[in-house]
Amino acid sequence: MRKYFGTDGIRRIANTELTPGLVYKVAKAGAYVLSKHTDHAPTILIGRDTRISGTLIESAMVAGFLSYGANVKILGVMPTPGVAYLTKKLKADASVVISASHNTFEFNGVKYFSNKGMKISDELEEEIEEVMDSGKIDELSAVNDKIGVSEIATDLLDEYVYFFRKNFEEDMEALNRDDFVVAIDTANGATSVVADKVFTALGIKHYIINDTPNGININDGCGSTHLEMLKQYVIDKKCNLGIAYDGDGDRCLAVDENGNEIDGDKILAVISKYLRAKGKLNKDTVVATVMSNLGLNKYAKDNNLNFVQTKVGDRYVLEEMLKEGYNLGGEQSGHVICLDYNPTGDGILTSLMLIKAILEENKTASEVVGIMKAYPQVLINAKVSSSKKDDFNKDEEVKAAIDELNKEFDGNGRVLIRASGTEPLVRVMIEGEDQEYITKKAREIADLIEKKLA
After folding, report:
1. Per CATH, the architecture of 159-369 is what?
2. Distance of CA 360 to CAs 182, 198, 299, 303, Å?
3. 71-77 and 43-48 as β-strands: parallel, antiparallel, unpaired?
4. Is 386 a catalytic residue?
5. Which of 101, 272, 333, 351 is catalytic?
6. Which phi-psi region, left, alpha or beta, contains residue 54 (left: φ > 0; alpha: ψ -120 to 50)?
7. What is the pLDDT of residues 425-450, one digit of tens each?
8. DSSP 199-235
9. Are 159-369 and 377-452 in the same CATH fold?
10. What is the CATH code of the structural domain delimited by 10-152?
11. Structure pTM?
């Protein structure tokens, strides 16, 4: 079991749990592990979101890298996918994003990307932890002329804007309509510095809300985790579509013209249909996680698409895509990976793909996403003993309750139980056609798990 890294890098409360001292060690160990096979002084990029603790964590990270002998380009506020894209484009040895994604401002985090612009593997994270705790850190100090240097490279944000112009400008010139208006919620996060530049450059009429970060308002009642404000704004302003990003900009959720949510599963359905019609959906396959809605599976089956599921986490979706040569995958939460463009979830990219599909069909957003029927879904957390949270699938009474319900559903519903990766919880997720019934059943199974694994 890993000590520092969770399912998406290291994420803790800044300056208490995620201290500058810990970050310094993470930087030194990470620089060593990610560049130990190179024969030159490594170059590492650092980007961050808008949290008040961002510059504190960034300073500790820079110090750790320079002390190891790595050179650093400080990108400033930059969406996670922008950092990933620039890592690959500039042929950097690695990069790091300082962000706690959709969490509230008091949290912050560290996630590494390889020289290919992809989140590093579980194995590399484990190796970094081993170096951190081995006592080897002090040996990794550069001296004299080997000490690294840093430079401010915030102008590289323009390269990320150009990436969108290069890939979408021609299509948008042909498809754009004067009566098509989008509302964009940047969650007072990393996309607040770039979304307006991209949509203006592409000539898409838009309003932007929640784009005045002050260090503590990131994700505060806004963005992809809090769609209520955007839903009302779309209705009040009579917009054709609403777009919501999360704090670090790697997720995108949407809202149709009636204020109804368009989650990651529905976005995957729309983009898969669009790509397939163009002959650009590799192996006619969509990759999602086990938490994807049953409706996406049904949509794929009804349309003769292959549907592949992985464990929860966009890194596992990407691993499957790379292994089998697929180019579209994602999560219900809005992480969507369009591998032909970028090897990580990219909120702005996802929104542009969705907009392109809507404009090309010349239909409303609600009509376009109507191709997938979402099943009601209930998620209840069972509080259990931390040492027993992985034992739910060993208890005969729990297993019998799950098997009985799955048999009853007969393909028109499902039960999914999994242990939390970070908390002493077992997550009980049930899908079915009757919201009231599945809520009752989820509560029953969660209560049983709590009783048996306390």
Report:
1. 3-Layer(aba) Sandwich (3.40)
2. 16, 20, 21, 20
3. parallel
4. no
5. 101
6. alpha
7. 889 999 998 999 999 999 999 999 98
8. HHHTT-EEEEES----SS-TTSS-GGG--HHHHHHHH
9. no
10. 3.40.120.10
11. 0.91
